[in-house]
From TrEMBL:
Organism this protein belongs to: Ulvibacterium marinum
GO process terms (BP): rhamnose catabolic process
One Gene Ontology cellular component: cytoplasm
Molecular function GO labels: L-rhamnose mutarotase activity
Pfam family of the protein (one): rhaM
Enzyme class, UniProt record, top EC level: isomerase
E.C. designation(s): 5.1.3.32
Keyword Isomerase appears in the UniProt entry: yes
Name used for this protein in its record: L-rhamnose mutarotase
Keywords, in A-Z order: Carbohydrate metabolism, Cytoplasm, Isomerase, Rhamnose metabolism
Residue stretches spanning the membrane: none
Length: 105
């Protein structure tokens, strides 16, 4: 069974272009690690009025999704992105999970 994850983050207003640039393309080793951890159909959208980022990913399991955060390449990516967005003390993005209210398969 696929788990659908949605979450929001915040990018600094003057860093949107750089944020998009760093994701297109993402590092091949990060993409590989995402796939190894069961992540599929990962998208990030921007609400330019609020500088909010909306992330959506389909994941194999919560355990694999959470374990991704412990990988060296993920931590390196977070450090690479800290100058562009709101982050926690460990460099992870400040992120808020969103609740699913409707789904049409």
């Amino acid at each position: 069974m696929v788990i659908r994850k949605a979450f929001k983050m915040k990018v600094y207003p003057d860093k949107i272009e750089e944020y998009a640039k760093r994701h297109n393309p993402i590092w091949p080793e990060l993409e590989e690690k995402l796939k190894e951890h069961g992540v599929e159909n990962y998208s990030i959208f921007l609400d330019a009025e609020t500088n909010s980022l909306f992330g959506y990913a389909e994941v194999e399991s919560e355990e694999k999704w959470n374990a991704l955060a412990e990988t060296a390449v993920c931590k390196k990516w977070w450090a690479h992105m800290t100058d562009l967005m709101e982050t926690n003390n460990d460099n992870s993005p400040v992120s808020k999970d969103l609740e699913s209210l409707f789904y049409m398969p």
